[in-house]
Amino acid sequence: MTETKQELMGPWGFKLRLRQQSGSAFLCTGSIGSFEAVERHTGRLDGYRAREARYQGRALASYEDEENATTTFLWLGPHHELSWTVGGRDVSFDMFARMLSGVNLDDSPAGLVVLAKRGTGGSVAMTVAANSLVNLCALTVMPTGDPSVSVPTHAGKKVAGGILWRSDEKLADGTVRRSAVIASASALTYLGFFDPDSSANAEVAESIQVQLA
Q1: Which of 25, 104, 137, 181 has the greatest count of CB atoms below 10 A from its CB?
Q2: How far apart are CA 156 and CA 162, in angstroms?
Q3: Range of the structural domain that residue 145 is part of
Q4: Are 73 and 61 in contact (CB under 8 A)?
Q5: Does one domain contain both 97 and 155?
Q6: How far apart are CA 165 and CA 152, in angstroms?
Q7: Strands 58-65 and 48-55, how do they pair?
Q8: What is the spatial distance between Cα 50 and Cα 71, in angstroms, rounded to a whole number?
């Protein structure tokens, strides 16, 4: 999906839109343990009520946020996890299991593939992909066909990956947040640079190429 000389931080995380006859839902993928790692970092993990279950030989977990009345379910594979957040407390694992019954999950070290099962009338589409280039920038990729995607209206610069727009935002403390947007025929890529003064920023912005199948 991505062509760059820089090293990726790790596997891509994806936000997927699952459409089934029962309705639509958003699912998120990440490396195994990523949900707990993020929630522990933000100090929220200890505030959840955790439960466990099994589904077709794999572990399931749920984390109930009592303060906000939401529940996050996780399917835990050998390498990656799939999560779904729904409103409510004391939500049955059966709801998550019914959703999972309509998809095929193929987990490998290279990534987690989520496909709707044939004959169910369902579909799976990527809405957001996220990763980072080591010591350089955060990457967010969205398909250009998604209704929520919009590109800047002013003229951009033609680069290897499409059309480039740069942006500098001065924060209240006087520091600068530097970012870039690159639009190709299939993807809109956001680069959020960690060091606004790094000489590598321009190099990666003008050379990175992202294409979605």
Answers
A1: 137
A2: 9
A3: 135-210
A4: yes
A5: no
A6: 7
A7: antiparallel
A8: 10
Tell me the C-alpha distance between 61 and 72, whole Å. Answer: 8
Domain boundary residue among 76, 91, 125? 125
* C-alpha pair distances (Å), 83 with each of 69, 80, 105, 116, 209: 17, 10, 13, 16, 29
The answer as to whether 108 is a domain residue is: yes
From first to last of the 213 residues of the chain, give the pLDDT tens digit.
666 678 888 888 999 999 998 899 999 999 999 999 999 989 999 999 999 999 999 999 999 998 899 999 999 999 999 999 999 999 999 999 999 999 999 999 988 999 999 999 999 999 999 999 999 999 999 998 877 788 887 889 999 999 999 999 888 888 889 999 999 999 999 999 999 999 999 999 999 999 897
Element (H, E) at 75: strand 70-76
Q: How many CB atoms lie within 10 A of CB 141?
A: 23
Domain count, the chain: 2
> How far lies 157's CA from each of 53, 59, 164, 169, in Å?
52, 48, 5, 19
Contacts of residues 47-52 at CB distance under 8 Å and 24 or more positions apart, as own/partner, are: 51/93
pLDDT value, residue 71:
97
How far apart are the C-alpha atoms of 28 and 127, rounded to whole Å? 10
What is the pTM for the complete model shown? Answer: 0.86
